[in-house]
Amino acid sequence: MNALRFFSKLAILVSFALVCTAMSDSAAKSTDAAAASSGSAAPAVHIVYTERPQGEEPEAYHIRTLSNVLGSEDAAKEALLYSYKSAASGFSAKLTPEQVEQIAKQPGVLQVVPSRTYQLHGPNKLQ
């Protein structure tokens, strides 16, 4: 029974990752293009997986976690793209490489991964 529970949770997390990727696609493209044109370490979209907050609204917890790294609640709200609350707990945000290193060390942060875009279906080649 534990194996079934494990694989159910794994399937939910994989689905969550795909949804996160799809939702942050447009933001990732714009930050990738800006970084490529400037040649600097511009912020890029990352998915930050966190523990589920206890006794606090998820979005407030995500903003507080970001504020610890970015220095202010306003900067955190500007960087925050989306708060995930259902299948898993986490958020997507625009972060520089240095900020990624800092946020990965924050209490309650489980993992920080760059947002990636995957094409699930290719063009129709039957024509």
TrEMBL record:
Residues 1-22 form the signal peptide. Keywords: Signal. Residues 46-121 form the Inhibitor I9 domain. This is Inhibitor I9 domain-containing protein. InterPro entries: S8pro/Inhibitor_I9, S8pro/Inhibitor_I9_sf. It comes from the Eukaryota. It holds the Pfam family Inhibitor_I9. Gene3D superfamilies: Peptidase S8 propeptide/proteinase inhibitor I9.
